[in-house]
């Protein structure tokens, strides 16, 4: 079963991306390096609640 999650920038905390995650195979919080338009550079984005 997959759930819709939101990714937030670790530096400025802006919520930029949404994606799906399979909860049964990935139980820990997702962390991805993506482009943040607020910061203007690639930063670490973490899964939010």
UniProtKB/TrEMBL annotation:
Gene3D superfamilies linked to this entry: Ribosomal protein L33
Entry keyword annotation includes Ribosomal protein: yes
Top-rank taxon, per record: Bacteria
GO CC field: ribosome
UniProt KW keywords: Ribonucleoprotein, Ribosomal protein
Tagged with keyword Ribonucleoprotein: yes
HAMAP family for the chain: Ribosomal_bL33
Family of the protein in this entry: Belongs to the bacterial ribosomal protein bL33 family.
Name of the protein described by the UniProt record: Large ribosomal subunit protein bL33
């Amino acid at each position: 079963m997959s759930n819709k999650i939101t990714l937030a920038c670790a530096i400025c905390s802006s919520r930029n991306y949404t994606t799906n995650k399979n909860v049964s195979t990935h139980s820990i919080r997702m962390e991805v390096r993506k482009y943040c338009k607020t910061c203007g550079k690639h930063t670490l984005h973490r899964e939010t609640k």
